[in-house]
Specification:
This protein has one domain (25-168): Peptide methionine sulfoxide reductase (Metal Binding Protein, Guanine Nucleotide Exchange Factor, Chain A), CATH 2.170.150. The chain is α+β, with helices and mostly antiparallel strands. It has a 6-stranded antiparallel beta sheet. A 3-stranded antiparallel beta sheet has the order 2-1-9, with no helix packed on it. The termini are far apart. The chain has helices at residues 3-23, 25-28, 48-54, 57-65; strands spanning 83-87, 93-96, 100-101, 109-110, 118-123, 130-135, 141-146, 156-159, 164-168.
Amino acid sequence: MTRSQLITLALATMAAAAAPAYLTWKAYTTMPKEAPHASQAFPVAKTDEEWQASLTPKQYAVLRRHDTEYPGTSPLLEEHRDGMFACAGCGQPLFTADTKYESGSGWPSFYAAVEGAVGTSEDRTLGALRVEIHCSRCGGHLGHVFPDGPRPTGQRYCTNGAALTFKASK
């Protein structure tokens, strides 16, 4: 076997081994039994049963259990009209449409949040420190913020589309 054949075989083997992990990516996101911010008080508070009744299963998984939607699946990726992105849990305005940009990450991304609308906390669930973002009104998990966004803020608010609703300007 030649060296290039050996390298090709090794790469094919690694790709085949990685495929099941990619296909079961949802299992990679852990959904705790209790909402991570359950002990924190927010202006909008509901029981777990009330949240389940008021949200779709996908919204509940993301907002209340910190799940992550598959990249590239949110219809809000293609939303380019003027308007406001709000929390799907409580309706609080979170991001204006003029702060949305195409990050290439597969999730709706913004470079700034509405003043006071987004809270942050440490997230160490994947073995690395990340900054989780949540709605400051209901505590719903939105995604994460990273310091690799565009000017003027340099921030990338990487959000789950399931955590958002959009209302176009008139």
